[in-house]
Design brief:
2 copies of one chain form a homodimer. By secondary structure, chain A is of the alpha/beta class. The first copy, chain A, has 2 domains: about 170 residues, Rossmann fold, CATH 3.40.50.1970; about 200 residues, Dehydroquinate synthase-like - alpha domain (Dehydroquinate synthase-like, alpha domain, Up-down Bundle), CATH 1.20.1090. In chain A, the strands form 2 sheets. Chain A has a 6-stranded parallel sheet with strand order 1-8-5-4-2-3, covered by helices on one side. Chain A has a two-stranded antiparallel sheet with strand order 6-7. Chain A is globular. At the A-B interface, strand 1, helix 7 and helix 8 of A face strand 1, helix 7 and helix 8 of B. Strand 1 of chain A pairs antiparallel with strand 1 of chain B.
Chain lengths: ~375, ~375
Amino acid sequence: MNNFDFKNPTKIIFGKDTIKNLENEIPKDAKVLLLYGGGSIKKNGIYEQVKSALAKVDVVEFGGIPANPEYAVLLEALAIIKKENITYLLAVGGGSVIDGTKFLASAALYEGETPWDILSQHIRTEKGMPFGTVLTLPATGSEMNSGAVITRAETKEKLAMGGPGLFPEFSILDPQVIASIPKRQLANGLADAFTHVLEQYMTYPVEALLQDRFAESILQTLIEVAPKVLKDPTDYKASANFMWSCTMALNGLIQKGVPTDWAVHAMGHELTALFGIDHARTLAIITASHYTYNFETKKEKLAQYGERVWQITEGTLEEKAHAAIVKTEAFFKGLDIDTKLSDYTDDYEGTAEEIAKRFTNRGWVALGEHQSLSPDKVQEIVKMAY
Amino acid sequence: MNNFDFKNPTKIIFGKDTIKNLENEIPKDAKVLLLYGGGSIKKNGIYEQVKSALAKVDVVEFGGIPANPEYAVLLEALAIIKKENITYLLAVGGGSVIDGTKFLASAALYEGETPWDILSQHIRTEKGMPFGTVLTLPATGSEMNSGAVITRAETKEKLAMGGPGLFPEFSILDPQVIASIPKRQLANGLADAFTHVLEQYMTYPVEALLQDRFAESILQTLIEVAPKVLKDPTDYKASANFMWSCTMALNGLIQKGVPTDWAVHAMGHELTALFGIDHARTLAIITASHYTYNFETKKEKLAQYGERVWQITEGTLEEKAHAAIVKTEAFFKGLDIDTKLSDYTDDYEGTAEEIAKRFTNRGWVALGEHQSLSPDKVQEIVKMAY
């Protein structure tokens, strides 16, 4: 096991009819900016529940934060924060709204030239404006971590930020919100959380026995509940397990003391940037090729995963590892998620070269848990994913 | 899954040679009371490491906190805190030293008549004096939770306290400390952590799939590392997994959203009070009898545990459940821990009646996850454990 630090101060309020607890979490004298996305919360009753819980607090609203939260839109919200002397932010939405809110929490207190610095200069946020979240879409884990990814259309950039000042003070997770989520987004959430776990697990063994088993526990639970959630999102028991698994998949716990990969995300992000493919689907496109290409360095963990998560008991270590990759691809397909780039676009020729060039231009010498994936190798992996 | 709140702000600093990080965690202007136990830290080098890391801070010392931290001794430390204007507490020890420090953290800011109120009147500590810990004995999980148990010899009482103000600000977990722990205490730590998990797991199913799997993960890991740790406590890999498992066993995570039992602890505490038997060993005495007595209400979880943790695949649900109890008793025996009261004392006659009487006198109407174990049932369980 590697050395690690772990601290996660976010308060989770989980369960049925918990949105009303908002009332107890936000300071009475706060001036709140309520942030949300495309307005689905006004159709599914969440908006009313939130407003009712905030009845005694001074609230300004800002809707319209898009998927892949856009810098230009967030600057409009930042202007409101300053103009209205906002003291507390409340994100009501999925990962995009929460990530956008984290950017605002940081930018609101940032004293440098332009808030873009925070992203371009990788400025760690030690202290942000306090904020809470009401999660409406389980997937990214942003509700219990301190990271965010922000997009800037103008320059076609998608950059990460974070720091200990960006943990939500609280996050309310009411699994009943899942009942009104479209099937496509549920499938994306399942695939996203599943891949989050894989990125922190599918590396090489370091005898972190408990972390491995926790990671396998989340994978097993997602596999168990996926068909139930997709079949009937009003199945509260399945939805609750889905929601808690997504949070635990990326709240920092399972990555402590172990090597992590994250190359699938790095490559996937480019497919979103180039083709607008849903984030989770880009992960499903890259995963099998990545594991096949890096088979030799990942085969011990692939075989362990095959045995423990997919009950593959027959064959050599290599055979189990290969079978585990097949199972993973089948899992994505079972979510009705295609796993090849050509399933999404006919215009895929040259994509691998383009992504390798982008990585080279950014000075990304190497990805993955061994820091061994140079842009030429990335090119080969993406080509395998055509 | 039941509704739950979860928040745990303790920072964990885990790994080899991490005690020196103390320097960065305690405010430079703090006046620190360094608390420890019987002095073993002066023999194994931990004391020197701590003192060296605290070189730049004003430190007063208080040693001699006994196992089952004693109120009278803690009052002496409290007098020093007040006299010396202490602002920060540092516990260097196992669960007893940390629990004692939690009492002091609360008592130092308590403004009522006598600090015993905190225990006798169940006063929740919302704010305590800040404190950190350097863990020297993995077992209780006190390093990452907000609870404590304090003993008062004068009145033969052993009472619990807690509250959100009693999470350590940080805890340093260097698995190398395990190398110098006597085998008896290692066995106790393994049994204690194992039972902590069982108390939060061996109840009835509520479809909390992830919590169940996390609990099973900790049990599996303890079973895997126990023989290695006992054989060679300098085995860093095994010790690291042992240490992290003990912390995760009682940091609040696995109990969220599920029913919990804790009747084994309630009965076990009395055996410590009456006979001075080590805490962990009292749990091993009670466990099998408790599960056998409550077989009907616990059999689903017992069978699940048997299947997943002990790979019991043959037989009916009842047969698997019974076999799981046998395996649990064998696990304790494998740690060289006896599982019957008569293994520890010849003077056990009347113990069951005495414990039932104590519970009745305290007004404890019912224990366990169903709140159904009245003192007469407790009497039967303890008798089965003779």
